[in-house]
């Protein structure tokens, strides 16, 4: 789905609000994903998946940083996420159905913590943007 100029500016605005808390939002999104979709836990047998654990906090920061990179390079999301895309497709081999689950949880976390920034227009743009992120992260599966 093509991101319009309006979408891009909405995404950048939402991210500027989220950024100071991005790691917490990432951790909250992971916690929601593990609770709502327990099968996703099978990819993290080496993690302490208790809500608030050091593993979840550290991984939340990494996921949020990757999304931040995609925002910063919104005209070249595939380039920005190239290494992570290869990692998921060739090494971690996460079933592609799981990506929209995490991105939905990410949106829910933003809505829960920064409700004011999500209007119909910005929510739609973030949804489209996260859809692009998922498309990139699943583009190398063969
Ligand atoms: Ni994902 C590692 C980003 C979806 C399972 N993941 C990473 C890393 C980033 C990342 C960044 C760290 C890479 C590194 O260490 O170099 N993951 C993202 C993003 C999304 C995503 C941006 C989607 C929006 N990952 C998912 C999903 C699953 C998943 C949906 C499984 C349900 N990811 C993993 C696992 C690792 C991982 C497992 C390795 C964790 C570790 O540290 O061992």
List the helices and strands and how they pair.
Elements: H1 5-18, H2 22-36, H3 54-72, H4 77-80, H5 82-92, H6 98-113, H7 120-137
Helix pairs in contact: 1-7, 2-3, 2-6, 6-7
List its traits.
organic acid binding, 0% strand, globular, mainly alpha, Globin, binds protoporphyrin IX containing NI(II), Globin-like, oxygen transport, 142 residues
Q: How do you describe this structure in short?
A:
This protein has 7 helices and no strands.
Radius of gyration: 14 Å
Distance between the termini: 21 Å
Give the helix proportion (percent range). Answer: 55-70%
Counting DSSP H or I runs of 4 or more residues, the number of helices is 7
**Mean of all residue-level pLDDT scores:** 96
Q: Which spans of ≥5 residues are poorly predicted at pLDDT below 50?
A: none
Helical/strand content category? mainly alpha
InterPro entries: Globin, Globin-like_sf, Globin/Proto, Hemoglobin_a-typ, Hemoglobin_oxygen_transport, Hemoglobin_pi
Pfam families: Globin
GO molecular function, one term: oxygen binding
Protein name: Alpha A hemoglobin
Describe, in plain words, how this protein is organized in 3D.
- The chain is an all-alpha fold and 142 residues long.
- The protein has one domain (5-141): Orthogonal Bundle (Globin-like), CATH 1.10.490.
- The chain is 68% helix and 0% strand.
- It is built from seven helices and no strands.
- Helix 1 crosses helix 7, helix 2 packs across helix 6 (98-113) and helix 6 packs antiparallel against helix 7 (120-137).
- The longest helix is centred in the middle third of the chain and has 19 residues, at 54-72.
- The chain starts with a helix and ends in a 5-residue tail after the last helix.
- Bound molecules: protoporphyrin IX containing NI(II).
- This is Alpha A hemoglobin.
- It holds the Pfam family Globin.
- InterPro entries: Globin, Globin-like_sf, Globin/Proto, Hemoglobin_a-typ, Hemoglobin_oxygen_transport, Hemoglobin_pi.
């Amino acid at each position: 789905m093509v991101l319009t100029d309006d979408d891009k500016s909405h995404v950048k605005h939402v991210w500027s609000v989220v950024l100071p808390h991005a790691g917490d939002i990432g951790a909250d999104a992971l916690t929601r994903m593990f609770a709502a979709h327990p099968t996703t836990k099978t990819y993290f047998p080496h993690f302490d998946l208790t809500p608030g654990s050091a593993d979840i906090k550290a991984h939340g920061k990494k996921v949020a940083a990757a999304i931040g990179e995609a925002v910063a390079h919104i005209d070249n999301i595939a380039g920005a996420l190239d290494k992570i895309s290869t990692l998921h497709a060739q090494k971690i081999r996460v079933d592609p159905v799981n990506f929209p689950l995490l991105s939905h949880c990410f949106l829910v976390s933003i809505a829960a913590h920064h409700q004011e920034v999500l209007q119909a227009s910005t929510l739609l743009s973030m949804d489209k943007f996260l859809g692009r992120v998922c498309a990139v992260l699943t583009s190398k599966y063969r």
